[in-house]
Amino acid sequence: MTTDLDGCISKAARILRESRYVISLIGAGISAESGIPTFRGPDGLWTRLGEPSNNQYQHFLEDPKAWWRQRMSAQASGGNSHWDNAKPNPAHYALAELERIGAMRHVITQNIDNLHQVAGTRGISEFHGNRFKMRCIGCNRRWDRAELELTAEAPPECPDCHGIVKSDTVMFGEPIPPDAISRSFEEAEKADCCLVIGTSAVVYPAANVPLIVRRNGGRLIEVNPLETPLSDVCAVVLRGPAGEVMPAVVEALRRQGNETAATAG
Ligand code: NAD
Ligand code: ZN
């Protein structure tokens, strides 16, 4: 890491120490070092293959049984190994540590990979759902996949409202679950600092989160190897991979805490 980056890391740690209520907005970039490819960016899946169609959810609603059968048969013929075998990387653990020491209060993630929870994060809102969960499209109730008995023929029916139960992962064209939106915006209104990690910050409504924090006078810290539309309005930008930068931020926070304690003593 360059000296310049070291200086920015110290500055980011100082901002975290000065802030009253820190939240994080997370994108696919944080899991790149766990072996899950991003969609955008130079190596992104969509950059190579093109963006998928926007009417996936419409197709699902037109014939949920057909959609379900296709999905179950795809799963039976082998999963998706880079997703199934992914483990949290040092950035996920650093965020969990920031929460544990009270330096960061809530994670708003656009990822579906569950790696924050595996790393120990507790306060989390998932904008795009979680691939290990199922959700009723009628009443929004959620289950862990293992809690439901899944057959190959048809999606389960919700015991509460008889609605269709689908994977919690938000499809293209599907509305963002309202509970995730409302909690995220409540957190954004409370925050005076937002860490923006591994997201291109162009997908709304998630991209509104840092804009709300900034509108209320809060500061933004960006962690991303590449420039984004937010970079110019950030208090500090950490240009490096999250798996290297985030543990260094936690370390700088600790060092600064020790220095303050030594001066006070
Ligand atoms: P995105 O638009 O948030 O872009 C990814 C960003 O990550 C880019 O700005 C890129 O520069 C940055 N990045 C790449 N490597 C990084 C690293 N090592 N450290 C920090 N930043 C890094 O996300 P997307 O890929 O366009 O995906 C769109 C949506 O698809 C996501 O919001 C998410 O819902 C979903 N998705 C989820 C996962 C996952 O769950 N892991 C993976 C891919 C896509
Ligand atoms: Zn229901």
Q: Please work out how many helical segments DSSP would assign.
A: 10
- Per CATH, what is the topology of the largest domain? Rossmann fold
Question: Given this structure, which CATH class of the largest domain is correct?
Answer: Alpha Beta
Computed Rg: 20 Å
Cofactors, ions and other ligands in the entry: nicotinamide-adenine-dinucleotide, zinc ion
- Largest sheet, strands/sense/barrel: 6 strands, parallel
Low-confidence stretches: none
Straight-line N-to-C gap: 32 Å
Counted up, domains total 2
Q: How would you write the strand order of the largest sheet?
A: 3-2-1-7-8-9
Number of strands: 9
Helix content: 25-40%
Q: Which structural category do the helix and sheet elements fall into?
A: alpha/beta
Explained architecture:
There is one protein chain. With 265 residues, this protein is an alpha/beta fold. The chain has helices at 3-18, 45-49, 56-62, 64-76, 81-84, 90-100, 115-119, 178-190, 208-215, 242-264; strands spanning 22-26, 106-109, 124-126, 133-136, 142-144, 165-167, 193-197, 219-223, 236-238. The chain folds into 2 domains: 1-36 and 87-129 and 176-265, TPP-binding domain (Rossmann fold, 3-Layer(aba) Sandwich); 38-85 and 132-168, SIR2/SIRT2 'Small Domain'. It is 40% helix and 13% strand. The strands form 2 sheets. Strands 3-2-1-7-8-9 form a 6-stranded parallel beta sheet, sandwiched between helices. The chain has a 3-stranded antiparallel beta sheet with strand order 5-4-6, with no helix packed on it. Strand 7 (193-197), helix 9 and strand 8 form a beta-alpha-beta unit. Helix 1 packs across helix 10 (242-264) and helix 6 packs parallel to helix 10. It is elongated. The mean pLDDT is 91. The chain binds nicotinamide-adenine-dinucleotide (NAD) and zinc ion. Zinc ion is lined by residues 136, 138-139, 141, 158, 160-161, 163.
